[in-house]
Amino acid sequence: MYDYIVNMSLETHIAGSDDQLIAGLHFAGRNTASYITARQNVSFAPQTASNFKPSGSRLMRFSLADQQGWLDGGTVRLIFKLTNLKVTGTLQPVSDSPASLFRRMRVIANGSAVIEDIEEYSRVHQMFSELLPAQRRYNNIAEAWGGAFIASGIDSPVHPDPIESDGERTVVVHLMSSFLGQGKMIPLSMVPVILELELGELDDCFAGGDNQWEISRPRLVADVLQIDQSLQNSYASHLLSGKSLPISMTGIYSLKSAVPTGSSLYSFPIARGFTRLSTVYVSFWDGSGKYVSSFYSPLAGKVNTAENDDFEYHLTVGSDRYPQFSIDSHQERFYRLRLARQIAQGTDSVSIAPYAYRENKMILGLNLEKAPGASSHSGINTRSGSQLTLNLRNSGAATTCHVCLVYEQLLNISASGCEVLD
Fold first, then answer.
1. Among candidate residues 141, 85, 166, 405, the one with its CA nearest the CA of residue 270
2. How far is CA 162 from CA 82, 83, 144, in A?
């Protein structure tokens, strides 16, 4: 009798569903876009200089503007020639991308609205590269440095090709930018953009010391669309009528702090607040290796036992604690990282081998959204007067703590200019 009731309940549910043609029986034409009249690959030259190095001109500034063009942000690449100035010895990259040559990136609209300002850009770029699947890193490194003929693994899908002494190579940089990667076309006539990149130090992303190099002939390349004049006029009329064009995107706030030597307890207060904070990433450096690519773990060189695995952490926002109990094991740290990347169901992966995560690739992640991946604006508000604090216990030999906060923001385009709401 019970089985019959369940059966009837399912049949009732099925009867209330609507039939739709499956894709194989649906012969309607695809959508067209005849209002796009042209697509051009354009180049933008720097405004500041033509040659750059840490001991000389360090700041690259590009102006992205067009009278009627719409920028496809996903196609933007920085291309330049990198010259090894050493008479003997190669330049051996230790990062996935030449983007790690830069310590800071800023994107500014209309001369004053700061859309992005990422400090420690070299480490942030490398960290998010480590969190990509191995196949994507494989392609990204091939596009950036080129790959050497060396056996690779899941956590090192490609070994970047060194640059010989007194040699040079043209490299391609896929800049990590929420603004350029948010998916919407960018109206350059309404949002004239300034992109600034500040170089780091000579040895930041190359093996060894006493490296000498120079960047020459940098340029930004991208695709710019032209649309039908009537559609262009409709966007202009929309803004002139007092309305706006909102572009939703994520923002990244990066900061670091020194960890007191020998301290078993450490709290890192973060003063800046956000209307919707989505995810927090934390990593450490112990002063050995390169700061750009070394992510220290307190379990480095130890056996993974409960006795050795005594590092723990949690976040507090006022009186609220995330998670409710401290994360106190190596395995839970990786689980929380997968939750932060929204891949806990096995839908994707990170290219960090289990052993590497225990040694020098430990990246902590904590998702603070109420409906991760299912809804926007579900993060927590840290602007209500409650301080965000990272609390650590037994961080081992760590000397530097790097925190990367991912939050939601909105670029509001109006006739009077651009406003960034975060």
1. 405
2. 11, 12, 12
CA 393 to mean position of chain CA atoms: 27
Locate tokens 């590269």: which residue? Answer: 129
**Paired tokens of 55:** 């001991």
What is the number of other CB atoms lying within 10 angstroms of the CB of residue 289? 14
Could you give the 3-state DSSP secondary structure of residue 146? coil
d(CA 252, CA 104): 12
CA dist 210 and 246 (Å) reads: 47
Which residue type is seen at 59? Answer: L
Cα–Cα distance for residue pair 19/275, rounded to 1 Å: 42
Alpha-carbon torsion angle 305, 366, 119, 272, nearest 10: -130
CA 224 from chain centre, in angstroms, equals: 23
What predicted TM-score, i.e. pTM, was given to this entire model?
Answer: 0.92
At 130, phi and psi to the nearest 5? -60, -30
CB 71 within 8 A of CB 221: no
Side chain identity at residue 102, one-letter code:
F
Radius of gyration of the chain (CA): 25
Is residue 216 classed as helix, strand or coil in its secondary structure?
A: strand
Digit-by-digit pLDDT tens for the chain (422 residues) are: 445 444 567 778 778 888 888 888 988 888 899 999 999 999 999 998 889 999 999 999 999 988 889 999 999 999 999 999 998 899 999 999 999 999 999 999 988 899 999 999 999 999 999 999 988 888 898 899 988 777 676 667 778 889 999 999 999 999 999 999 999 999 999 999 999 999 999 999 999 999 999 999 999 999 999 999 999 999 999 999 999 999 999 999 999 999 987 778 999 999 999 999 999 999 999 999 999 999 999 999 999 999 999 999 999 998 899 999 999 999 999 999 999 998 888 778 899 989 999 999 999 999 999 998 888 889 999 988 788 999 999 999 999 999 999 999 999 999 988 999 98
Residue keyed to tokens 């112990």:
286
Q: Closest Cα partner for 60 from 72, 44, 83, 43?
A: 44
Eight-class DSSP state of 135: H
Report d(CA 290, CA 360) in Å as an integer. Answer: 11
Residues 22 and 42: their CA atoms lie apart, in Å, by 41
The single-letter code of the amino acid at 378 is S
